[in-house]
Amino acid sequence: MRKWVEVPVFSLGFRPFFLAGATFAALAVAIWALWLYGRLPGAQAVGGMLAWHRHEMPFGFAVAIIAGFLLTAVPNWTGRPGLKGWPLIGLVLVWLLARLAWLLPISPGFLLLLQLPFLPLLALVLGRDLIAAGKRDNYPILLMVMLLAGCQAMTVSGLSTDDAGLQRRGVLAALWLVGAMMSVIGGRVIPFFIQRGLNRPVQPAGSPWPTRILMVSGLFAALTFALGLQDVPRLWLTTLFVLMGVLHLLRLWRWHDRGLWSVPLLWSLYLSYAWLAVAVFAMALWHAGYMAQQSLATHSLAVGGVGGLILAMIARVSLGHTGRPLQPSKAIVAGFALMLMAGLSRVLLVPFSGLGLALSAVLWCSAFGLFLWRYTDILLKSRVTGGR
After folding, report:
1. Are the CB atoms for 241 and 214 separated by under 8 Å?
2. pLDDT for 101-129, tens place per residue?
3. 167, 51 in Cβ contact below 8 A?
4. Taxonomically, which superkingdom (predicted)?
5. From residue 355, how far is each of 33, 295, 368 by CA, in Å?
6. Cα distances (angstroms) measured from residue 29 to each of 54, 57, 297
7. Of 6, 14, 58, 244, which one is least surrounded by beta carbons within 10 A?
8. Does domain 2-380 match CATH 1.20.210.10?
9. Its pTM surpasses 0.85
C-alpha cells in the first residue's frame, strides 16, 4: 500500500485530477451524444440522462480540473506543502465515487449524499492554507468554490424533488460561476504566460477595478441564474452582459501581442478566453430579443470557453509543473484546433442541422483524447529536471 502513496501521480493535485477530468470529459460527452442519437438506448442514470449530463459536466468534469489547478496553485501562492499521498488519494476517491453513484440503483436522496462532500472538502483544504498564510487576495477563489457547492446542492435537490427547473437553474448558475472563476484565474495567468512565453518584459499591473467589476458582475450573473431571473429575456440584464463583454474585450486588447499567434500554448489560451466574450454578448442579444436560443450562449461558454480554456490550461500547466519544455506536440496543437472547432460547431451549426451537435461531440472527444494520448505518460511519471 505504501507504494501507492509514493507514486508520482499522487505527488501533487494536478496529476490525478487532470487525468481524471480529461478522461471523464471524453467519456461523458461520448456517452451523452451516443444516447442522444439513439445509439445507447439502454443507458440509464438516476433521474434520467438529461439530469446526468446537466450535472456531470460542471460538477464532474469542470470541478475536477478546478480542483487539480487550485491544489497546485495554492501551495505556490502560500508557500505551504500541497496535498499529496493518502489525503490526495482520498479526495480523488470521493470525486470518483460521486461519478459512479449515478450508475448505481440508489435513491435520489442517497445520490445527494454521495455528491455533496467533494466541494466542501476541497474548500476546507484550500481555505486552511489560504487563511494560515493570510492570502486574503485569494479569498474570492475560495468563495467561488463554496458557492459552487451551494449550486450543486441546489441541482441535486431539484433531482430529488423532481424539479427540473431547480436543476436547470443550479447547473446554469454553476456554469457561470465557473466562467467567473476562469475570468479571475485567466486574468492572472494568461498575461503572465504571454509575457513569459514571448520573453517580454513584465508589464506593470493596470488598475484593479476592471478585474473587480468583472468578478462581481460574474458572481451577480450566476446569482440571477440561481434565482430564475434568466428564465425569460429581461431587457435590463442586457446591460450586465454588455458590461462584461466590454471588459473581456478590454482584457484581450491589453494582452494582445502579435507574437502569440506563433506559440500554440498562447493562442489556444487567448482564443479560448475570447469565447467568454462571445458568451456574454450572446446573452445580451438573447435578453434584447435578437437571438432565439439561450442555449447558444450557454454552450459558447461551456464548450468554447470552459472546454477550450481547460484544455489549453492543463496542457501548459502539465508541462510546466513536470519540468518539461513548454513545447506541445503536434497532436495536442491539433487538439487545440479541434476544441475551437467543437465550439463553432455547437454554436453555429446546431441551429441549422442536428448533425452539428454530433460533430461538436466528436471534435470535443477527439481533443481530450489527444490530450490523454500525449499527457498520460507525463502525468504518471516523475518530474524531470527543468523549470516552469
Report:
1. no
2. 988 887 777 888 899 999 999 999 999 99
3. yes
4. Bacteria
5. 11, 16, 20
6. 11, 8, 19
7. 6
8. yes
9. yes
